[in-house]
Write a structure and sequence with these properties.
mainly alpha; membrane
């Protein structure tokens, strides 16, 4: 039995090692090496380079030159530089755990699996374990999108109040970030990141585009497009925000009505499968028992 497990473990160890080497090689790209040498010979400080490095990586991910895994993790809210490597390591570990679980199960029930069936089960559970971290990331992206969709109208109303009170867009975003830490935690983290980018000297249009790339929600994409057009054409930002906030509030009301309309259809299946049989048993059960007793007599 151990002869079956050893080749699989060796193969997955080689797979994990090759993935880690690939990630390490991609992080030390020739372009980045040349950039480091230019920085070193030009006499610029390393602190400035370290500050610009994450923003440059995010910009590259928007242009498509960075891996899609990095951009996917940004949409899930994981911005750490080691997040892609951690995802690959988690995939390898989960695949190994799938193989080990099938092997231990086969040791507990030795006559249950044949050699071919055991190999197929190990491969199946290894693939399933490899895909579990991806499913977790996709679920987190979906939940964050839903949370942002419901939080955006409240945040936008507060931003409208701040801008109409005389604040600029940057000051309004900073103020909104302070006020919505508890009520809107997902948008709070994203707006805080954008506020820090604006304080670091990024342009308004660039910071808004980066925000839209990190969140990837259609309503926020429309808002960013309208703000960039208002900034380019010189129109009133407060009026733009007011019109968009009204339309977004109406859209949220329509979404709530749509969810309320779907509720009776969703309740129909548990009603037929669980509630109606119990009601029939409670109502007709005593009558059926009495009728059965009468026929027995």
């Amino acid at each position: 039995m151990y002869e079956i497990l050893v080749p699989v473990l060796i193969g997955f160890t080689i797979l994990v090692g090759s993935l880690l080497l690939m990630i390490h090689a991609s992080r030390n790209s020739p372009k980045e090496h040349v950039h480091n040498r230019i920085k070193r010979y030009s006499g610029e400080s390393d602190t400035e380079f370290d500050i610009e490095k994450p923003s440059r990586k995010l910009t590259e991910s928007q242009n498509g030159s960075t891996s899609s895994t990095r951009l996917k993790l940004l949409k899930a809210g994981w911005r750490a530089r080691w997040a892609p490597a951690a995802l690959w390591v988690a995939r390898g570990v989960m695949a190994l755990l799938g193989v080990l679980s099938i092997f231990l199960f086969s040791l507990s029930y030795p006559g249950l699996f044949s050699t071919r069936a055991l190999q197929l089960a190990q491969l199946l559970f290894a693939g399933l374990g490899f895909l579990i971290p991806t499913f977790i990331v996709d679920y987190r992206i979906k939940s964050r999108r839903q949370a942002i969709t419901w939080e955006l109208p409240e945040v936008l109303d507060l931003l409208v109040v701040c801008v109409e009170a005389g604040m600029g867009l940057e000051q309004g975003i900073a103020r909104v970030t302070q006020e919505m830490s508890l009520s809107c935690p997902v948008l709070h983290s994203e707006f805080k990141q954008m506020s820090l980018e604006l304080l670091a000297g990024k342009g308004r249009s660039e910071a808004l585009k980066r925000l839209a790339a990190r969140i990837d929600v259609p309503d926020l994409d429309s808002l960013v497009t309208m703000l960039i057009q208002a900034n380019t054409l010189g129109t009133s930002i407060s009026q733009t925000l007011r019109v968009f906030a009204d339309s977004l509030r109406s859209k949220r009301f329509l979404r709530a009505e749509e969810m309320a309309g779907k509720l009776p259809v969703k309740l129909l299946i548990p009603l037929i499968l669980f509630i109606f049989p119990m009601l029939l048993i409670i109502i007709l059960g005593p009558a059926i028992i009495r009728i059965a007793e009468m026929f027995q007599k």
